[in-house]
């Protein structure tokens, strides 16, 4: 059976981008077709300025939302990264295989470190070494596939390079994984700035739909989405990114094809209205289930404890083998 690993960072509230780009497919497809692990990767949340209490709260909320979205602990392993020491242990070996140059080439590092410096903040070393930890997350489980949004492609490519290099140098230890992407909504864009992705860590929430937004908040945000000065509804990501984003969202929520859906609309207003309602209906069951689970924290704790135990059991032999292979 194929092994799948993927994760989500508790750096903010989960967004519609996280859901459509990743979580929904974990729920509907991945947990049924493979031996799958899904992790709240809290160590990664420490690469930028963070508030300890907030990270703890967001980790818990993210784990609860994964269960609310439909990950079933009977079918897959749901756990918090920092509960399993093997991630940090293997990350160090990855740092010893990777080069400084390849870390500095990562687009996310360049963007995030640029932003930090521009606002006068220092850049944590862990922001640079982040992909080494991510490689460890993936490789510790003998992962075959990593279902992620397109923004993570470069990091998974680097993980492959590190696995191949390690195996060549020290003998075969790691499975070489590959990234897979959802067919629709692989990249959900910010509603107010459709040239940048809808990211949970962005400061300005006006263009971001959060999974726990209530119906009115979703409607308000979608109705205020930036479109363009034209009138015609066409699916053209380059010329009309805001409209294309709405069509992508509508298609992802209703199961249609974005280009075909465009033909059914004579105005942006009607498109926004239908998109808003489709998103409200898409998120309703997740929000309801989240409220039930949040009322029973003992249950979530137990799921996470069992998940970490199972994950540890899988990772430890692989990481031990890697330590032996490098001479430790
Ligand atoms: P974020 O960028 O919101 O901090 P994470 O790094 O925690 O998200 O990623 C969790 C998953 O969600 C990844 O698979 C990522 O590719 C996916 N994802 C995040 N934002 C988007 C988006 N706007 N569109 C599609 N997928 C996304």
TrEMBL record:
Residue window of motif 'KMSKS' region: 197-201
Residue ranges of the motif 'HIGH' region: 10-18
Purpose: Catalyzes the attachment of tryptophan to tRNA(Trp).
Name of the featured protein: Tryptophan--tRNA ligase
Gene: trpS
An example Gene Ontology molecular-function term: tryptophan-tRNA ligase activity
Family: Belongs to the class-I aminoacyl-tRNA synthetase family.
UniProt superkingdom: Bacteria
Protein location: Cytoplasm
Positions with a binding annotation for L-tryptophan: 137
PANTHER family per UniProt: TRYPTOPHAN--TRNA LIGASE, MITOCHONDRIAL
Subunit relationships: Homodimer.
Root EC class: ligase
PROSITE patterns, sorted: AA_TRNA_LIGASE_I
Catalytically driven reaction(s): tRNA(Trp) + L-tryptophan + ATP = L-tryptophyl-tRNA(Trp) + AMP + diphosphate + H(+)
Enzyme Commission numbers on file: 6.1.1.2
Binding, ATP: 9-11, 17-18, 149-151, 188, 197-201
């Amino acid at each position: 059976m194929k092994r799948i690993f993927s994760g989500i960072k508790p750096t903010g509230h989960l967004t519609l981008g996280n859901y459509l780009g990743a979580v929904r497919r974990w729920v509907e497809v991945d947990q049924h077709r493979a031996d799958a692990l899904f992790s709240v990767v809290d160590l990664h949340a420490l690469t930028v300025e963070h508030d300890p209490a907030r990270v703890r709260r967001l980790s818990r909320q993210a784990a609860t939302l994964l269960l609310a979205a439909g990950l079933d602990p009977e079918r897959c392993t749901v756990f918090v990264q920092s509960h399993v020491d093997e991630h940090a242990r293997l990350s160090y070996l990855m740092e010893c295989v990777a080069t400084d140059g390849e870390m500095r080439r990562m687009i996310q590092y360049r963007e995030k470190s640029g932003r930090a410096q521009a606002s006068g903040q220092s850049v944590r070393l862990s922001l640079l070494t982040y992909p080494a930890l991510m490689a460890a997350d993936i490789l510790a489980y003998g992962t075959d596939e990593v279902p992620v949004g397109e923004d993570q492609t470069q990091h998974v490519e680097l993980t492959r390079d590190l696995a191949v290099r390690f195996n060549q140098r020290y003998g075969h230890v790691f499975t070489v994984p590959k990234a897979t992407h959802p067919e629709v909504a692989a990249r959900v864009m910010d509603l107010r700035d459709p040239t940048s992705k809808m990211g949970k860590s962005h400061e300005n929430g006006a263009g971001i739909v959060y999974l726990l937004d209530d119906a009115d908040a979703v409607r308000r945000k979608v109705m205020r989405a930036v479109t363009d000065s034209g009138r015609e509804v066409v699916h053209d990501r380059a010329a009309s990114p805001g409209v294309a984003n709405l069509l992508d969202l509508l298609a992802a929520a209703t199961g249609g094809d974005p280009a075909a859906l465009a033909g059914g609309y004579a105005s942006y207003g009607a498109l926004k209205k239908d998109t808003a309602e489709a998103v409200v209906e898409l998120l309703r069951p997740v929000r309801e289930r989240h409220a039930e689970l949040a009322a029973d924290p003992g249950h979530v704790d137990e799921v996470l404890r069992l998940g970490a135990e199972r994950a540890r059991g899988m990772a430890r032999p692989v990481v031990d083998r890697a330590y032996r292979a490098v001479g430790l």
